[in-house]
Amino acid sequence: MNLALFDLDHTLLQIDSDHAWGVHTTRIGWTDPEAFARRNDEFYAHYKAGTLDIHDYVRFATDAVRERGPQAAAAAHADFMREMVLPALLPVARALVEQHRARGDTLLLVTATNEFVTRPIAQALGIDHLIAVELERAPLPDGSGDWITGAIRGVPSAREGKVTRMQAWLAERGLDWDRVHCTFYSDSINDLPLLEKVQVPVATNPDDRLRAIAQARGWRILDLFEKLQ
């Protein structure tokens, strides 16, 4: 089986969807502009540096959603997709996905961003398999269903966790690494563990540290958005 694995933020998407969702919640009045922006930017800096505590970040990032409930959250996310995500989902990125689809590859979006933010983005790309940070849920007080608690369920798909989650995905299908051929596209040094695991690592719009590693190891470097700068 040939697998095409894609990171999302700054790989297929020209923005960071997690950070952008935070900006969107401020725009619609769900969060205090100054306090939220300051903490959001701090977390983003830690992510870029590879020092992010993902449990702390997910609690912070999902707080406004958790408080407002499923219906308000769904409506806000639809606006977020229309106003911020779809304009940043450029034809060059869609074409890369379609190249692999045309070859008959199985497509997976493998992201450290949570499932609430990313599932509609995967759907917009036509990617059926999503490995994202899964959110713990608990019953709503009115008995109408369940909703997110702010905690992470299971292993977060960040750094080494992407390898763990991919291994679980393979095992669920009776597969292992020796029975698949994987290509993985990522921009981030955070994804080095999975890039080192696959047969074809592709440093895509890479940060400076990942670019240096890719050059030293002879990995393919794809500057997908280079002509758009």
Describe this structure in words.
β6, α7 and β7 (200-204) form a beta-alpha-beta unit. The protein has 8 helices and 8 strands. α1 packs antiparallel against α2 and α1 crosses α3 (54-85). The protein has helices at residues 17-27, 33-49, 54-85, 91-102, 115-125, 160-172, 192-197, 208-217, and strands at 2-6, 106-114, 129-133, 135-139, 146-152, 181-186, 200-204, 220-222. It is globular and about 50 Å long. With 229 residues, the protein is α/β, with parallel strands linked by helices. The strands form 2 sheets. The chain has a 6-stranded parallel beta sheet.
Outline the biggest β-sheet: 6 strands, parallel
Share in β-strands: 15-25%
Within the largest sheet, what's the order of strands? Answer: 3-2-1-6-7-8
- What is the β-strand count? 8
| Radius of gyration from CA coordinates | 18 Å
**Termini separation:** 36 Å
Shape from CA axes? globular
Number of H/I helices: 8
Low-confidence stretches: none
The succession of helices and strands, N to C, reads EHHHHEHEEEHEHEHE
Which class of secondary structure composition applies to the elements? Answer: alpha/beta
Approximate helicity band = 40-55%
Q: Compute the average pLDDT.
A: 95
Task: Please outline what is shown here.
By secondary structure, the chain is α/β, with parallel strands linked by helices. The chain has eight helices and eight strands; from the N terminus they run E-H-H-H-H-E-H-E-E-E-H-E-H-E-H-E.
Give the SSE map.
Blueprint: E1 2-6, H1 17-27, H2 33-49, H3 54-85, H4 91-102, E2 106-114, H5 115-125, E3 129-133, E4 135-139, E5 146-152, H6 160-172, E6 181-186, H7 192-197, E7 200-204, H8 208-217, E8 220-222
Parallel strand pairs: 1-2, 1-6, 2-3, 6-7, 7-8
Antiparallel strand pairs: 4-5
Keywords: Hydrolase, Magnesium, Metal-binding
InterPro entries: HAD-like_SerB (IPR050582), HAD-like_sf (IPR036412), HAD_hydro_SerB1 (IPR006385), HAD_sf (IPR023214)
Protein name: Haloacid dehalogenase
